[in-house]
Fold PBP1A family penicillin-binding protein.
Amino acid sequence: MKTTTSLVSEDGVLITQLFEENRELVSIQSIPSHVQEAFVAIEDSRFREHQGIDIRSIGRALYRDIVARQAVEGGSTITQQLAKNVFLTNEKTLLRKTKEVAIAMNLERRYSKDEILEMYLNQIYFGHGAYGIQAAAELYFNKDVSELSIEEGALLAGLPKAPNSYSPFNDLNKSKQRRDLVLTVMQRQGYLNAEEMVRLQGKTVAIERAEQQDIEPYLTYIDMVIDEAEQRYHLSNEELLTGGYEIVVPMSPSIQVDSFEKMAQSSYFPAEDQQAEAAFVLMDNHTGGVLAVHGGREYVRRGLNRVNVKRQPGSTLKPLAVYAPALEKGYHPYSLLTDELIEYDGYTPRNYNGEYTGEMTMYDALTYSANAPAVWLLNEIGVQESINSLERFGLDVSDRGLAIALGGLTEGLSPFEIVSSYRVFANEGKKTDPYFITAIYSRSGDRIGEANTSEENVIKPQTAWDITRMLEAVVQEGTGKSGEVQSALAGKTGTTSYTEVSGATRDAWFVGYTPTVVGGVWMGYDTTNESNYFHGGSSYPTILFKDIINDLPSNLTATSFTKPNNVKELETPIALTEINDLTATLAIGGRGLMSIRLNWTGSDDDRIHYTIYEVGKSGRKEIATVVGANEYFIPSLNPFSQKTYEIVPYNTQIDREGVTSNQATVKFQLGFH
């Protein structure tokens, strides 16, 4: 029999059911005797005595057929009905009837009466998509079959003859009349006494229709479960929908529904793009189990799944294609990269703001998504090194040009691929195949498959940690700072342009991770053209992603990333501030009888050194280097000489001097304070 397959969360909660026929098999022991008696009474009063066919019923039916001059009554036993439902059609011919009798008699030889009745009650149709007694009990009374009362069992027993006509949902009065007839027949056959019959017939039909689950938020997830069941466990779509499997999935129903509702809201999209599409996927950092997924804002079952559609990834590819392999080759987050407008054999990458600083740290280049340094660095490490790195991340890219650094790919990558790759950064450099099915069990309870959670090292834990810290900076002060987020978050934005229209966007991205989850949002149109393009940038998917993260269940929230034991912490970047308030005063005291006091507004960061210069006609002379202070005393033997000083801050992190301060000429001051 076709049996309902159940999707169950990892903590055992039923999420939804998949079926061609909504049927849940139950044993005869689970069906109360008064429910069994109701069906026997109305369908086959001599069920316990005959051997598959009832001669009396056949004779009565034959007589009525002759009178009507056509086949009007079946006269079938419960065993015959089971034979017809399982093996035959509903046509009323002598040949079909002969087959039905033969099969029924064979069934009686092979199975006990209880087994036949059990199969019958699990097989028959009760209307409104409910097959079998258990599905019917849940549909009409919202209870398990074992909890059915006598009058409820009688109502269900009256349905199979004409489910639509006798359905209490369609006609309550007709349903009650049919129920009362069943109770009358039960009394005639000794299952009830007259007093019980009258009392039960006096009851109103009290139905409690089971609330119909809105499965629209689950459609993408269901389809991807079906796909994985076929690809990994070789179960066809039909087999999955009819086989009565229990499929344990890593889905978080609350995230699945919440993200579905947020994606549908117009406020997360530009006013001009209310018809724009989006895709979203969220995975568990540690296991790779998919917590939530949506292939579109109004996803159609077995339709276009945008989670799997390849798009231009833009700058979301930079950490994967450039910065991770560079760190693996010995570069450091504070290594200096060339930030200039350079032509590479006809290819000239440009920064989005049109500004170039000459050189820039990797940290800043990633934080502010500068293009020129990324391409320069890819050229330095070599395209093949990048391709090898992408392959280790599980990405197959056919391109071999420097445009890879900026996500300029011929075919593109899907949101699912990008998010799966970012999980390596979130999981200490290790890769695991993502999955939708944690485990799958047969109808009999045997486990027939489970997810492969074995891990593979892709990059060093130190590389993963450095990338994480840099991607945190992207969110806190760089291109990913739009919106608010309560959780610790590392991530990268990406925007690809539609060059036919000035300022138009083809693909807008945000991909990121917290200490517990990794995910991404893509926004855009299925087809981009001059009249159909995205009017916003990466801020829109960034805000949507952050709002989803803000509403994660409490067990998935975390305010900070935990540094693995085997890695070094990444220093925060040194920020050199321009010194324009240097003063030089001559007074009594200090380091001698007379001293020159240099004073300036400095930084609390002891990693900044200040080099003091005396400036004269012949140039400048280094006087001293100050660390951890913002003043310096110079002994003076000649109070009447006019001297000028300046200070140059020095960044020890990148071995570079900052901007020279203003020049200060000595002025006289009475005493020091």
